[in-house]
User: What shape does this take?
Amino acid sequence: MPMHVEICEDDCINCGLCAERAPSNVEEVPDAELPRIVRQPLGTEEEEACLEAAEYCPLGGFHADQRQEGGSVREDVPAGDNGTRARAMPP
Ligand code: SF4
Assistant: This one.
């Protein structure tokens, strides 16, 4: 069940925390308004780093979802600091 990560530009303040938490998957881009997803997580270690990035994102702009067979999405990311839940991405 691969994980899919995504950054929602409407909910990102470009604080750099996700790139710090998941450096294999996200990088800061100088002079850009958003960090960039370098690649989708590969393996447990990267998935855990991305879940941590989603958990600590201050505005819930970093989304990490487990895609289940058949294309449905399970929300399993805890609330961010502002109490919002990460939203499921469309299949
Ligand atoms: S942690 Fe959240 S707000 Fe900060 S750069 Fe990443 S997506 Fe944007």
